[in-house]
């Protein structure tokens, strides 16, 4: 299982706010979660998604395309992947490991 930190940045919006675009992306992610394909968490600066790497690439493409469907002509998407193969780790496990050491 991999964990992805992703930020989709619509460029050329009418206002500085991008919350409408973020909300649309969260709706797409909710659909993948309902299908049991991913888990995700919205943060103030990005979204963290966990799942099988091949599925995550599919999800990333879907959310990258979302602002285009809302009329945006340019989108930049930042992706960071944590793909640990020696054991199965979820995002909550990573937090719990650090919290146990505090």
From TrEMBL:
Q: Thiamine-binding protein domain: which residues?
A: 4-99
Xref: SUPFAM superfamilies: MTH1187/YkoF-like
Taxonomy, superkingdom = Bacteria
Q: Which GO terms describe its cellular component?
A: cytosol
Coiled-coil spans in chain: none
The record's listing under InterPro entries reads: MTH1187/YkoF-like (IPR029756), Thiamine_BP (IPR002767), UPF0045_domain (IPR051614)
Q: Which Pfam families match?
A: Thiamine_BP (PF01910)
Similarity comment text for this entry: Belongs to the UPF0045 family.
Q: What is this protein called?
A: Uncharacterized protein, MTH1187 family
């Amino acid at each position: 299982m991999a964990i992805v930190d992703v930020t989709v940045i619509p460029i050329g919006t009418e206002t500085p706010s991008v919350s409408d675009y973020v909300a649309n992306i969260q709706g797409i992610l909710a659909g993948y979660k309902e299908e049991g394909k991913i888990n995700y968490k919205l943060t103030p600066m990005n979204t963290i998604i966990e799942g099988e790497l091949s599925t995550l690439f599919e999800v990333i493409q879907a959310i990258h395309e979302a602002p285009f469907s809302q009329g945006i002509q340019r989108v930049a998407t930042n992706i960071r992947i944590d793909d640990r193969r020696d054991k199965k780790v979820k995002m909550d496990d990573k937090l719990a490991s650090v919290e146990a050491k505090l």
